[in-house]
Amino acid sequence: MRYPIEQKAETHAKIIDTAARSFREHGAESNGIGSVMKELGLTKGGFYRHFDSKDDLFAESVSYAFENRGACMAAAAEAAPKGQGLRAIIEGYLTSEHLSTPGSGCVFFTLGPELSRQPKAVRKRINQAMLAYRDRLLPFVPGKTHNEKLKNFGILFPSMAGVMTAARAIDDVETRKRMLAAAREFFISSFAGSARS
Fold first, then answer.
1. Which 8-state DSSP code applies to residue 80?
2. DSSP state letter for 17
3. Three-class SS state of 23
4. d(CA 76, CA 91)
5. If we measure between CA atoms, which residue out of 117, 110, 114, 109 comes closest to residue 158?
6. Can you tell me the distance from the alpha carbon of 83 to that of 76, in angstroms, rounded to the nearest whole number?
7. Which of 57, 112, 115, 145 has the greatest count of CB atoms below 10 A from its CB?
8. 101 in a structural domain
9. Which residues contact 188 (CB under 8 A, 6 or more apart)?
């Protein structure tokens, strides 16, 4: 027999997962609470049993998306041959597959500009998730000191997201592929070229 508290937790998790995908696919403003709840076969009124507001849902679902994406990237790095962790991250990030699946993609390239327009309280919650994401991936970033690793992370990851954002705006598939290939080559050479992670 399922207890109501377990059912509520399961429903809450489903809402977060669906919203995280939906926000990344369609943006924060174009996708309302009603469409997320409808997709799950739930009522809009039931939403307020789980969240105080759409801002609350946005902050929690974006945090969840950062956690999931970071876990996937760290797993790829850990599965790579010794010293090739960062290369595996770069090669997995700058792909046509990643570009064409924004619902499971990196929050930085799918929602980056929208994050900066959120209310301060929402940004504060998301910033905590961003720091956890950074800290999870920092061991794979080159640098002799913690500060060097932070500097390199701050250049590499936003730059990769920028490439993805630009590529996403290009209609021609072959041009996108060339852009991603050139970026992979550049970032691997610049940050992972000598088996640093």
1. S
2. H
3. helix
4. 10
5. 109
6. 12
7. 57
8. yes
9. 87, 90, 91
Q: What gap in Å lies between CA 18 and CA 13, rounded to an integer?
A: 9
On the question of pLDDT at 196 being above 70, the answer is no
Counts of helices then strands in the chain (DSSP H, E): 10, 0
Q: Which amino acid is at 17?
A: D
- The structural domain count of the chain equals 1
Convert the pLDDT of each residue in 11-33 to its tens digit. 999 999 999 999 999 888 766 67
Is 70 inside any structural domain?
yes
Handedness of CA 46, 52, 53, 58 (dihedral sign): negative
Encode 93-116: b = buried (16+ Cβ within 10 Å), e = exposed.
Answer: bbbeebbeebebbbbbbbbeeebe
**What is the arithmetic mean of pLDDT over 39-54?**
85
Q: Residue 97 maps to which CATH number? A: 1.10.357.10
59: Cβ contacts below 8 Å, ≥ 6 apart: 118, 121, 122, 125, 126
Q: Give residue-wise pLDDT tens across range 130-169.
A: 999 999 999 999 999 999 999 999 999 999 999 999 999 9
Determine, yes or no, domain membership for 152: yes
Question: Distance between CA atoms of 96 and 151, rounded to whole angstroms?
Answer: 27
Provide the residue type at 168 as one letter. R
